[in-house]
Amino acid sequence: MTMQIALRAKGGLVVASDTKIRTTEQEFTAKPDVPLGITNSPKVRISKRHDVIVALAGWGAQAGDPARDLAEYLSEQDAIPDAPVDLLRGWGNRLFQEKYPSQKHDFPLCTIMVVNPHTEYCAFWKLRVRRDSDDQCSSTYLVNGNENNSAIFWPEYFRCDKDLYDIQATTRIAAFTILMAAELNPFGVGGLEIWQFDKDWHRVPHADIEHLKAQFIELRNSIHSAVLGDRPHVIR
User: Fold this and answer.
1) Helix spans in the chain (H)
2) Residue 172 burial (CB count, 10 A)
3) How far apart are the first and last CA of the chain?
4) What is this structure's pTM?
5) 82-96 per-position pLDDT tens digit
6) What whole-number distance in Å separates Cα of residue 218 and Cα of residue 207?
7) Which CATH superfamily does the domain covering 3-204 fall into?
Protein backbone atom coordinates (compact mmCIF):
# COMPACT_ATOMS: atom_id res chain seq x y z
CA MET A 1 0.00 0.00 0.00
CA THR A 2 1.08 3.57 -0.62
CA MET A 3 0.14 7.01 0.61
CA GLN A 4 0.78 10.26 -1.24
CA ILE A 5 -0.43 13.83 -0.89
CA ALA A 6 -0.21 16.91 -3.09
CA LEU A 7 -1.00 20.37 -1.73
CA ARG A 8 -1.12 23.90 -3.04
CA ALA A 9 1.08 26.42 -1.20
CA LYS A 10 1.63 30.17 -1.45
CA GLY A 11 3.82 30.51 -4.50
CA GLY A 12 4.12 26.80 -5.23
CA LEU A 13 3.10 23.18 -4.75
CA VAL A 14 4.24 20.32 -2.53
CA VAL A 15 4.08 16.57 -3.23
CA ALA A 16 4.95 13.96 -0.59
CA SER A 17 5.00 10.18 -0.91
CA ASP A 18 6.02 7.18 1.12
CA THR A 19 8.66 4.91 -0.41
CA LYS A 20 7.93 1.46 1.05
CA ILE A 21 7.47 -1.44 -1.38
CA ARG A 22 6.68 -4.98 -0.21
CA THR A 23 7.80 -7.65 -2.66
CA THR A 24 6.14 -11.04 -2.96
CA GLU A 25 6.45 -14.11 -5.16
CA GLN A 26 2.98 -15.56 -5.30
CA GLU A 27 4.02 -18.45 -7.52
CA PHE A 28 6.50 -19.81 -5.01
CA THR A 29 4.92 -19.15 -1.61
CA ALA A 30 2.22 -21.08 0.15
CA LYS A 31 0.87 -17.81 1.56
CA PRO A 32 0.91 -15.12 -1.14
CA ASP A 33 0.39 -12.32 1.38
CA VAL A 34 3.69 -13.04 3.14
CA PRO A 35 6.35 -10.66 1.79
CA LEU A 36 9.75 -11.92 0.71
CA GLY A 37 11.31 -8.52 1.17
CA ILE A 38 10.83 -4.81 1.78
CA THR A 39 12.50 -2.10 -0.26
CA ASN A 40 12.36 1.68 -0.24
CA SER A 41 12.30 3.28 -3.65
CA PRO A 42 11.01 6.56 -5.14
CA LYS A 43 7.41 6.41 -6.37
CA VAL A 44 7.43 9.88 -7.95
CA ARG A 45 8.41 10.51 -11.59
CA ILE A 46 8.62 13.74 -13.57
CA SER A 47 7.73 14.67 -17.13
CA LYS A 48 10.45 17.30 -17.38
CA ARG A 49 9.16 18.69 -20.66
CA HIS A 50 5.95 19.86 -19.00
CA ASP A 51 6.97 19.96 -15.29
CA VAL A 52 4.30 17.36 -14.54
CA ILE A 53 4.75 15.01 -11.58
CA VAL A 54 3.38 11.46 -11.74
CA ALA A 55 3.09 9.32 -8.58
CA LEU A 56 2.05 5.66 -8.45
CA ALA A 57 0.00 3.79 -5.83
CA GLY A 58 -1.33 0.24 -5.73
CA TRP A 59 1.00 -1.42 -8.21
CA GLY A 60 2.81 -3.56 -5.66
CA ALA A 61 5.75 -5.62 -6.91
CA GLN A 62 4.46 -6.19 -10.43
CA ALA A 63 6.89 -5.76 -13.28
CA GLY A 64 7.02 -2.39 -14.94
CA ASP A 65 6.61 1.19 -13.78
CA PRO A 66 3.34 2.81 -14.90
CA ALA A 67 4.33 6.14 -13.36
CA ARG A 68 7.45 6.33 -15.50
CA ASP A 69 5.52 5.14 -18.54
CA LEU A 70 2.86 7.82 -18.06
CA ALA A 71 5.49 10.51 -17.46
CA GLU A 72 7.18 9.55 -20.72
CA TYR A 73 3.82 9.52 -22.52
CA LEU A 74 3.02 13.00 -21.25
CA SER A 75 6.47 14.19 -22.35
CA GLU A 76 5.62 13.09 -25.88
CA GLN A 77 2.63 15.46 -25.98
CA ASP A 78 3.05 18.94 -27.45
CA ALA A 79 0.95 20.37 -24.63
CA ILE A 80 -0.94 19.19 -21.55
CA PRO A 81 -4.53 20.50 -21.46
CA ASP A 82 -5.89 22.10 -18.30
CA ALA A 83 -8.39 19.23 -18.11
CA PRO A 84 -6.46 16.17 -19.37
CA VAL A 85 -9.45 13.82 -18.98
CA ASP A 86 -9.30 12.16 -22.40
CA LEU A 87 -5.50 12.01 -22.31
CA LEU A 88 -5.36 10.23 -18.95
CA ARG A 89 -8.36 7.94 -19.40
CA GLY A 90 -7.21 6.83 -22.84
CA TRP A 91 -3.75 5.97 -21.52
CA GLY A 92 -5.24 4.13 -18.53
CA ASN A 93 -7.57 2.06 -20.70
CA ARG A 94 -4.69 1.01 -22.93
CA LEU A 95 -2.57 -0.01 -19.92
CA PHE A 96 -5.40 -2.14 -18.54
CA GLN A 97 -5.95 -3.85 -21.89
CA GLU A 98 -2.24 -4.59 -22.21
CA LYS A 99 -2.17 -6.12 -18.72
CA TYR A 100 -5.54 -7.93 -18.82
CA PRO A 101 -6.64 -8.10 -22.48
CA SER A 102 -9.51 -10.55 -21.90
CA GLN A 103 -10.65 -9.54 -18.42
CA LYS A 104 -14.05 -8.03 -17.70
CA HIS A 105 -13.51 -7.04 -14.05
CA ASP A 106 -13.48 -3.35 -13.24
CA PHE A 107 -11.47 -3.02 -10.02
CA PRO A 108 -8.56 -0.56 -10.33
CA LEU A 109 -5.23 -1.94 -11.47
CA CYS A 110 -3.54 1.02 -9.78
CA THR A 111 -4.11 4.71 -9.08
CA ILE A 112 -1.82 7.43 -10.38
CA MET A 113 -1.61 11.00 -9.14
CA VAL A 114 -0.77 13.62 -11.76
CA VAL A 115 0.28 17.12 -10.69
CA ASN A 116 0.45 19.92 -13.25
CA PRO A 117 1.75 23.22 -11.80
CA HIS A 118 0.97 25.15 -14.99
CA THR A 119 -2.79 24.92 -14.87
CA GLU A 120 -4.83 27.69 -13.29
CA TYR A 121 -7.48 25.65 -11.51
CA CYS A 122 -7.21 21.86 -11.08
CA ALA A 123 -3.53 21.17 -10.58
CA PHE A 124 -4.12 17.73 -9.03
CA TRP A 125 -5.57 14.72 -10.86
CA LYS A 126 -6.02 11.10 -9.83
CA LEU A 127 -6.36 8.41 -12.49
CA ARG A 128 -7.85 5.04 -11.57
CA VAL A 129 -6.56 2.58 -14.14
CA ARG A 130 -9.32 0.06 -14.86
CA ARG A 131 -11.27 -1.36 -17.78
CA ASP A 132 -13.07 1.97 -18.03
CA SER A 133 -10.54 4.27 -16.38
CA ASP A 134 -11.86 7.25 -14.46
CA ASP A 135 -10.37 10.29 -12.80
CA GLN A 136 -10.99 13.02 -10.27
CA CYS A 137 -9.39 16.41 -9.82
CA SER A 138 -8.77 18.94 -7.06
CA SER A 139 -7.67 22.55 -6.94
CA THR A 140 -6.55 22.49 -3.29
CA TYR A 141 -5.08 19.15 -2.21
CA LEU A 142 -5.35 15.49 -3.15
CA VAL A 143 -4.56 12.21 -1.40
CA ASN A 144 -3.63 9.10 -3.36
CA GLY A 145 -3.31 5.52 -2.14
CA ASN A 146 -4.24 4.85 1.50
CA GLU A 147 -6.99 7.50 1.43
CA ASN A 148 -8.91 6.13 4.41
CA ASN A 149 -5.86 6.49 6.67
CA SER A 150 -6.70 8.75 9.62
CA ALA A 151 -3.54 10.76 8.95
CA ILE A 152 -5.62 12.86 6.55
CA PHE A 153 -6.51 14.64 9.81
CA TRP A 154 -3.57 17.01 9.18
CA PRO A 155 -4.70 18.67 5.93
CA GLU A 156 -8.26 18.65 7.25
CA TYR A 157 -7.28 20.22 10.59
CA PHE A 158 -5.30 22.98 8.87
CA ARG A 159 -8.15 23.50 6.37
CA CYS A 160 -5.90 23.04 3.36
CA ASP A 161 -8.99 23.11 1.17
CA LYS A 162 -9.46 26.79 2.15
CA ASP A 163 -6.22 28.19 3.59
CA LEU A 164 -2.86 28.57 1.87
CA TYR A 165 0.43 28.37 3.78
CA ASP A 166 3.97 29.15 2.71
CA ILE A 167 5.87 26.33 1.08
CA GLN A 168 7.79 25.35 4.23
CA ALA A 169 4.65 25.09 6.39
CA THR A 170 2.92 23.19 3.59
CA THR A 171 5.90 20.85 3.41
CA ARG A 172 5.57 20.08 7.13
CA ILE A 173 1.85 19.36 6.73
CA ALA A 174 2.62 16.99 3.84
CA ALA A 175 5.49 15.32 5.70
CA PHE A 176 3.53 14.85 8.93
CA THR A 177 0.62 13.37 6.96
CA ILE A 178 2.84 10.66 5.44
CA LEU A 179 4.76 10.03 8.67
CA MET A 180 1.57 9.75 10.71
CA ALA A 181 0.16 7.41 8.06
CA ALA A 182 3.18 5.17 8.65
CA GLU A 183 2.45 5.22 12.40
CA LEU A 184 -1.13 4.12 11.81
CA ASN A 185 -0.40 1.65 9.01
CA PRO A 186 3.25 0.55 9.35
CA PHE A 187 2.61 -2.58 7.28
CA GLY A 188 1.71 -0.59 4.19
CA VAL A 189 3.26 2.87 4.54
CA GLY A 190 6.87 3.84 5.27
CA GLY A 191 9.66 6.13 4.20
CA LEU A 192 9.32 9.66 2.85
CA GLU A 193 10.17 11.66 -0.25
CA ILE A 194 9.06 15.25 -0.84
CA TRP A 195 9.05 17.45 -3.94
CA GLN A 196 8.54 21.22 -3.99
CA PHE A 197 7.66 23.45 -6.93
CA ASP A 198 8.25 27.18 -7.15
CA LYS A 199 9.69 27.82 -10.60
CA ASP A 200 10.58 24.18 -11.15
CA TRP A 201 10.49 20.88 -9.23
CA HIS A 202 13.22 19.99 -6.79
CA ARG A 203 13.45 17.12 -4.36
CA VAL A 204 13.85 17.94 -0.66
CA PRO A 205 17.35 16.79 0.42
CA HIS A 206 17.86 13.78 2.66
CA ALA A 207 19.15 15.92 5.56
CA ASP A 208 15.96 18.00 5.50
CA ILE A 209 13.85 14.84 5.41
CA GLU A 210 15.65 13.57 8.51
CA HIS A 211 15.03 16.90 10.25
CA LEU A 212 11.31 16.65 9.43
CA LYS A 213 11.25 13.12 10.86
CA ALA A 214 12.87 14.38 14.08
CA GLN A 215 10.30 17.17 14.33
CA PHE A 216 7.53 14.64 13.86
CA ILE A 217 8.88 12.42 16.66
CA GLU A 218 8.96 15.45 19.00
CA LEU A 219 5.38 16.31 18.08
CA ARG A 220 4.24 12.71 18.47
CA ASN A 221 5.75 12.44 21.94
CA SER A 222 4.35 15.81 23.01
CA ILE A 223 0.85 14.73 21.95
CA HIS A 224 1.27 11.53 23.94
CA SER A 225 2.39 13.47 27.04
CA ALA A 226 -0.42 16.00 26.69
CA VAL A 227 -3.05 13.29 26.56
CA LEU A 228 -1.63 10.90 29.17
CA GLY A 229 -0.06 13.45 31.47
CA ASP A 230 3.48 13.33 32.82
CA ARG A 231 3.72 9.56 33.00
CA PRO A 232 7.15 8.55 31.68
CA HIS A 233 6.60 7.00 28.30
CA VAL A 234 8.70 7.15 25.14
CA ILE A 235 7.14 6.13 21.86
CA ARG A 236 9.55 4.23 19.69
Assistant:
1) 66-75, 85-99, 153-157, 167-184, 206-228
2) 18
3) 22
4) 0.89
5) 999 999 999 999 999
6) 17
7) Aminohydrolase, N-terminal nucleophile (Ntn) domain (3.60.20.10)
